[in-house]
Design goal:
alpha+beta, Fructose-1,6-Bisphosphatase, Chain A, domain 1, eight-stranded mixed β-sheet, five-stranded mixed β-sheet, binds 2,5-anhydro-1,6-di-O-phosphono-D-glucitol, binds manganese (II) ion
């Protein structure tokens, strides 16, 4: 048997990767590794249900039935509960918050309370499920600031630069898990035959500039003039490699940002006359994706300020988002700042 490890990365499971990352930090307790492992299990449980979505009408009632009735739960509610239940008892977390719940999600008293806080968007892009379009789960991890017991709003309302890890799962033609703990961004693809995430995208780097933009252009007439001018500018001939930027918009943020991470370019969700701060949520969407994209060499801004420097004041607050290749985000900021 050849015992050299020439192709070791082919068999790098997520679990092993997390342990090797931990071993680089001699003082790490392993609690964090356990937390990431629990998240990877939680998203596999969500994925299992997402892949069955198209069969619900054929197979009838599923185990997504609630206890009192025969109603099939919406998938985003299912995902929300699944993640909460997969994470509440492992002893890593002191509190959670999710896009689907108005208030904080407390850890039951009879379970151990840990030093981390988790915020998540259980199913991003869920409006697309019926058309079999890519959706995903986004998560953000913070270190608690209070000392013990139940986590509080102070633990949760921290700016994005305080995140200690973030990532997402992508339910697409294959399922991916992309995460960072501040030491590069790593992507894993699920091998469903063995149920393991295998390292497929080591140390992802976003191109410094891209040639693709993503925005819901249906809102064009609600944008401020500088925003319109910016998008018009991207469409000018010769703007990127002798041609205009290409427009791509899936309408699932996590999928649009994943493509932007892979190919470069920019994703924008600006404020407009109807929604001053756009549509996307700072704590569950913008901060974790900003953490990923910055750790891959890109940038994320609300048009003026770095996303991760915004100081949150409410759990469900929104912010505009310009995220992607560093040069593209800076161009966008320059356009938006022009005084006329
Ligand atoms: P969610 O499904 O978690 O509510 O998020 C929906 C978000 C995001 O995924 C997507 O990019 C955006 O809404 C699309 O908004 P528009 O339909 O306004 O373009
Ligand atoms: Mn979302
Ligand atoms: Mn959602």
């Amino acid at each position: 048997m050849d015992t050299t490890h020439q192709s070791a990365s082919k068999f790098m499971t997520l679990e092993r990767h997390i342990i090797e990352e931990k071993n680089k930090h001699p003082h790490a307790t392993g609690e964090f590794s356990g937390l990431l492992h629990s998240i990877s299990l939680a998203v596999k449980l969500v994925w299992r249900e997402v892949t069955k979505a198209g069969l619900v009408n054929i197979l009838g009632k599923t185990d997504r039935m609630n206890v009192t009735g025969d109603e099939v739960k919406k998938l985003d509610e299912f995902a929300d509960e699944t993640i909460y239940k997969a994470m509440d008892h492992a002893g890593h977390l002191c509190v959670m918050a999710s896009e689907e719940n108005e208030d904080l999600l407390h850890i039951p008293d009879h379970y151990q309370h840990g030093k981390y806080v988790m915020l998540y968007d259980p199913l991003d892009g869920s409006g697309n499920i019926d058309a079999n379009i890519t959706v995903g789960t986004i998560f953000s991890i913070l270190m608690r600031v209070t000392n013990s017991g139940n986590g509080t709003m102070d633990d949760v309302l921290q700016p994005g630069y305080k995140q200690v890890a973030a990532g997402y799962a992508l339910f697409s033609s294959s399922m991916m898990f992309v995460y960072s703990t501040g030491h590069g961004v790593h992507g894993f693809t699920l091998d469903p035959s063995v149920g393991e995430f295998l390292l497929s995208h080591e140390n992802i780097r976003i191109p410094q500039r891209g040639a693709i933009y993503a925005v819901n252009e249906g809102n064009y007439n609600r944008w401020e003039p500088n925003m319109r001018r910016y998008i018009d500018w991207l469409k000018i001939e010769d703007k990127a490699d002798g041609r205009p930027y290409s427009g791509r918009y899936i309408g699932s943020l996590v999928a649009d940002v994943h493509r932007t991470l892979m190919y470069g370019g920019i994703y924008c969700y600006p404020g407009d006359t109807k929604n001053k701060n756009g549509k996307l949520r700072l704590m569950y969407e913008n901060n974790p994706l900003a953490y990923i994209v910055e750790n891959a060499g890109g940038a994320a801004s609300d048009g003026k300020t770095r996303i991760m420097d915004l100081v949150p004041t409410a759990l469900h607050q929104k912010s505009p988002l310009f995220i992607g290749s560093i040069d593209d985000v800076r161009f966008a900021e320059e356009f938006l700042a022009v005084k006329r």
